[in-house]
Design brief:
about 110 residues, globular, about 15% strand
Length: about 110
């Protein structure tokens, strides 16, 4: 089953996750969301597997730039927002089937193959 690593090229945590995967000889497909964008169904899969609170990055610059502090955001609203601002998710995010790992620590502690 293929592994996809979502993030942006200049993120230090994404770089560390890529280095870790390469060191462990784990093949993966890198998805730079700034360049490649995100499909709604992909993000919906993340939400089904992990939930909005796990995926949504309320500390991101994109969140602050959109001034979302007082806005009530449910999964539907998040899907709309992330189409316009694909950096609203926690990075790095790794997907292998129904396994969705969020953050470098989860990736490093997983038993990926």
């Amino acid at each position: 089953m293929s592994i996809h690593l979502y993030g942006i090229k200049n993120c230090s945590q994404v770089k560390k996750a890529k280095d870790f995967l390469k060191e462990k000889s784990i093949n993966f497909v890198e998805v730079d969301v700034r360049k490649d964008g995100l499909e709604r169904q992909t993000v919906n899969h993340w939400l089904r597997c992990r939930g909005l609170e796990s995926v949504f990055n309320k500390r991101s610059k994109a969140y602050k730039d959109l001034d979302l502090g007082d806005v009530q955001i449910d999964e539907s609203k998040f899907l709309d927002l992330i189409e316009e601002s694909p950096l609203l998710f926690k990075r790095p995010l790794l997907v292998q089937g129904d396994t969705v790992l969020i953050g470098l620590k989860e990736i490093q502690e997983s038993d990926l193959s």
